[in-house]
Amino acid sequence: MSAYSARTRIKFCGLTRHEDITLAAALGVDALGFVMWPKSARSITPALLEELAAQVPAFVTRVGLFVNQPAEFIEQCLPYLDLIQFHGDEPASFCQQFGRPWIKALRMRDDIDLHQAAADYSHAQALLLDAYRPGTPGGTGETFDWSRIPSTLEKPVILAGGLTIDNVALAVSQVMPYAVDVSGGIETTPGVKDADLMTSFVKHVALASVQ
């Protein structure tokens, strides 16, 4: 996995406020995630997505997170996104139809075969690996056993699931992922980011990346 990059990229997910976008961009965060799944506590409407996406500066990737949602709704959001994150049970054929780069989130259930998943989603830009909790597609705030990630995986890995300022440096040094994804670990309440946690998280990733 480390062959893809000497620097671990950072994605902040679940953005809902203008001030959080401003700070994330100032901190050099690589990607900002907008949750378009209405059952999430961090979900936003397409109207708010349009407003927030307009604030994101050049060279910061705008990512839309969807969970088993209709193609028509995804297409409605596409003008404001650079990358699509499929966080449900979407087959590769569904993910590929939008003419936009995409990543596939996988929950690390006991029986998952990551090599097979990489083959099944061969057109994905990366695989996002998240903790598994039955009935919950993501945002659990839980970690998983990082040693389960094979070092020979054919796709870049975005590591998610319970990352905080207390464990992200260890995660980066142990997994050497292409990127890390954080949401609850930098929040005071769902969708409301904490400036100090955001700043500290970026610093911890940066220090771990150069070691």
UniProtKB/TrEMBL annotation:
Family membership: Belongs to the TrpF family.
A UniProt-annotated Pfam family: PRAI
SUPFAM superfamilies on file: Ribulose-phoshate binding barrel
Keyword field contains Amino-acid biosynthesis: yes
Top EC class of this enzyme: isomerase
Pathway terms, separated by semicolons: Amino-acid biosynthesis; L-tryptophan biosynthesis; L-tryptophan from chorismate: step 3/5
Name of the protein described by the UniProt record: N-(5'-phosphoribosyl)anthranilate isomerase
Reactions catalysed according to its record: N-(5-phospho-beta-D-ribosyl)anthranilate = 1-(2-carboxyphenylamino)-1-deoxy-D-ribulose 5-phosphate
BP-aspect Gene Ontology terms: L-tryptophan biosynthetic process
Record's keyword terms, sorted: Amino-acid biosynthesis, Aromatic amino acid biosynthesis, Isomerase, Tryptophan biosynthesis
Protein encoded by which gene: trpF
EC identifiers of the protein: 5.3.1.24
GO molecular function: phosphoribosylanthranilate isomerase activity
InterPro entries named in the record: Aldolase_TIM (IPR013785), PRAI_dom (IPR001240), RibuloseP-bd_barrel (IPR011060), TrpF_fam (IPR044643)
UniProt entry tagged with the keyword Amino-acid biosynthesis: yes
Domain N-(5'phosphoribosyl) anthranilate isomerase (PRAI): 11-203
